[in-house]
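Field log, afternoon session.

UNIT: design team B
ACTIVITY: writing a sequence onto a fixed backbone
BACKBONE:
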């Protein structure tokens, strides 16, 4: 985990080698290139496993490491160091007294082992001077009387090669050999107040505190966090701002509202300002933003890279590692269902379902935001009417509806739009007269947190524009006796990304025209003009054909009624006709036309579509077009103008794959929806 975090921050080598540790091998003495590196004055920690093979418990005291430290001016060769062996009591006594040397500091621990018990103990050694440190073994005192020790394997065993020469075999004990370099600056870090447990959605502002007790400064700081959904760096300006007031719209703070940049944040390495210098024990503070993104036990790993201002001959940079375990408990569970509104073009009905899964917490809703500059969300009813209590108690659930409008403009294939435009709209979920301001989700840090949430929730529809993101912001109630009052210092943000708004058809339309009008039918029939607006919500161009059908050609409007009324052969004017699918015309042997009996006047179509019975329209992706229509009405009444059919066909683009549902379904047919027109007889 640590290596994966640090590989993006460690500077690359000019030699082209992939192992960044080679950088320090250039300045390490040849005899010690296989050694690890430690710093004088800093502890080296070693985990030792002890196992009791006996059937009885034993007690161990004074357990410590056996070490050998040669100063830089008294360094011995590898052969000289490996020649040391613990074979008699005199030699072991000498080793037991080595910790008395002022150049070393060893830790001691006491513990007991039960029958056949295994225990891991951490021991430390702190070298105080430069040189070569070799951890030789461990020693202990059994039951307070018997002294024992264990010698690790020598670090340079020899065996003959095929050519008769001796070569060294790498041993596990080589990991216990250290080159001790001079004292260097060392960063110490602390995050306040990073919680041990939190409810899902809990959003807080934390402070990273870094200290360098050395008089030598460090610079060029970088930071990487294993879970940026939970924790990421803020901006310096927010350090002294009050939370959560700094997130509100129209705030008096000088707040830099910057839209999240997915290209920069995709690197996940935060670079501190170039003028950042830490030295002399003065604390360096930087804001961090925390959000409990999902339930479960989470391990946060934070690593900070820094360089020495005074260039060292051995080590140019170091890293600070911080680890924190976090337990996230369930809180509010939210889900959204978006359905097209059949009577409104480019409008949708949003259903939000919220369940309080906590055992004791109660929440008050503050706002619901839609993400994307093309979306506008609004309430269908005042929220106090929908949710009079204003408080969602533990175990309760709530469902409410909103109206969503799409203001997206047509986008051509040459135009590039960001995957997640973070501008959006919001509605207040509370009393309309409340003085509390709405929170700005388009600015950092809320925009940054949402960017990382989208990266986590991305799926096969991530590039589909027919989806929308929602952010529900709420506050828990105060835990004191003042029930019903939310805690202004706490904030919860719950996010739902890639909520699909795709309908069964990518083509939607709206017929617009008069609903009621007057006409004098004694003089002429009535011509009425209508307008059909067709919208293509897909990412592909579409071809649409509109077929209008008069009552005489509509097969599903009823059974055919036979004509029964009698009339003269040369009757003129309007008369009753039967509703037939076809009026046959025959000729007699004399060549004269002979018409069948005229149908009854009761089945004369009250209106007909005029103009072409089939109209075609071509639509670009995410665009709309207007198609003029016209009907002729012959008598007063109320008429349903739904006798038309739309045939649509998507035209796939060569540059786009067939990954989304609309492209897979490339054609379809839609029946007209009811549009009622009332025409009254004028005086």
């Amino acid at each position: 985990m640590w290596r994966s975090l640090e590989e993006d921050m460690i500077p690359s080598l000019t030699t082209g080698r992939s192992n960044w540790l080679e950088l320090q091998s250039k300045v390490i003495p040849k005899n010690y290139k296989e050694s690890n590196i430690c710093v004088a004055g800093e502890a080296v920690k070693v985990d030792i496993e002890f196992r009791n093979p006996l059937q009885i418990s034993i007690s161990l005291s004074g357990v410590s490491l056996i070490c050998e430290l040669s100063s830089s001016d008294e360094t011995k060769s590898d052969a000289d160091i490996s020649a040391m062996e613990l074979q008699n009591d005199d030699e072991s006594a000498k080793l037991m007294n080595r910790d008395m040397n002022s150049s070393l500091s060893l830790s001691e621990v006491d513990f007991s082992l039960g029958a056949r018990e295994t225990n891991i103990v951490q021991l430390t050694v702190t070298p105080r001077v430069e040189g070569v440190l070799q951890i030789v073994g461990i020693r202990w005192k059994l039951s307070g009387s018997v002294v024992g020790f264990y010698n690790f394997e020598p670090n340079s065993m020899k065996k003959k090669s095929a050519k008769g020469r001796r070569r060294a075999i790498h041993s596990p004990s080589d990991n216990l050999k250290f080159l001790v370099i001079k004292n260097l600056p060392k960063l110490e870090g602390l995050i306040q107040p990073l919680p041990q447990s939190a409810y899902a959605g809990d959003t807080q502002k934390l402070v990273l505190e870094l200290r360098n007790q050395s008089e030598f400064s460090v610079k060029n700081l970088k930071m990487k966090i294993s879970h940026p959904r939970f924790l990421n760096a803020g901006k310096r300006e927010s350090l002294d701002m009050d939370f959560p007031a700094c997130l509100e719209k129209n705030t008096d703070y000088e707040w830099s509202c910057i839209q999240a940049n997915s290209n920069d944040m995709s690197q996940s390495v935060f670079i501190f300002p170039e003028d950042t210098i830490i030295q002399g024990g003065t604390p360096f503070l930087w804001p961090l933003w925390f959000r409990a993104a999902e339930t479960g036990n989470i391990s946060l790993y934070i690593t900070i890279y820094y360089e020495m201002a005074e260039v060292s001959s051995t080590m140019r940079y170091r890293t600070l590692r911080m680890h924190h375990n976090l337990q996230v408990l369930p809180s509010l569970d939210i889900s959204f269902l978006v359905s097209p509104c059949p009577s409104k073009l480019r409008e949708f009905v949003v259903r939000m379902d919220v369940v309080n899964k906590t055992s004791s917490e109660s929440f008050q809703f503050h706002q619901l935001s839609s993400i994307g500059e093309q979306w506008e969300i609004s309430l269908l009813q005042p929220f106090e009417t929908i949710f009079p209590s204003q408080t969602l108690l533990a175990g309760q659930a709530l469902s409410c509806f909103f109206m969503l409008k799409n203001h997206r403009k047509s986008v051509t294939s040459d135009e590039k739009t960001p995957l997640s435009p973070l501008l959006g709209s919001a509605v207040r979920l509370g009393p309309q007269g409340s003085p509390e301001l709405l929170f700005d989700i388009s600015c950092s840090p809320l925009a940054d947190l949402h960017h990382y949430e989208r990266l986590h929730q991305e799926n096969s529809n991530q590039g589909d524009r027919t989806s929308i993101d929602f952010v529900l912001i709420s506050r828990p109630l105060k835990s004191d006796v003042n029930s019903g009052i939310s805690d202004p210092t706490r904030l919860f943000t719950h996010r739902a990304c890639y909520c699909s708004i795709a309908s069964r058809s990518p083509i939607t339309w709206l017929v617009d025209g008069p609903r009621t009008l007057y006409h004098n039918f004694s003089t002429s029939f009535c011509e009425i003009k209508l307008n059909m607006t067709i919208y293509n919500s897909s990412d592909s161009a579409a071809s649409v054909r509109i077929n209008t059908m008069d009552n005489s050609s509509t097969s599903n409007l009823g059974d055919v009624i036979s004509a029964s009324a009698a009339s003269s052969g040369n009757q003129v004017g309007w008369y009753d006709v039967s509703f037939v699918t076809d009026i046959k015309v025959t000729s007699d042997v004399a060549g004269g036309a002979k018409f069948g009996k005229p149908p009854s006047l009761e089945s004369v179509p009250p209106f007909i579509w005029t103009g072409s019975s089939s109209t075609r329209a071509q639509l670009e992706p995410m665009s709309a077009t207007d198609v003029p229509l016209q009907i002729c009405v012959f008598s007063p009444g109320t008429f349903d103008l739904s006798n038309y059919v739309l045939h649509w066909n998507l035209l796939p683009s060569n540059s786009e794959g067939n990954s989304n549902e609309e492209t897979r379904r490339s054609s379809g047919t839609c029946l007209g929806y009811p549009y009622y027109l009332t025409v009254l007889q004028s005086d």
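LOG NOTE: The chain has a mean pLDDT of 77.
NEXT ACTIVITY: expression trials, pending approval
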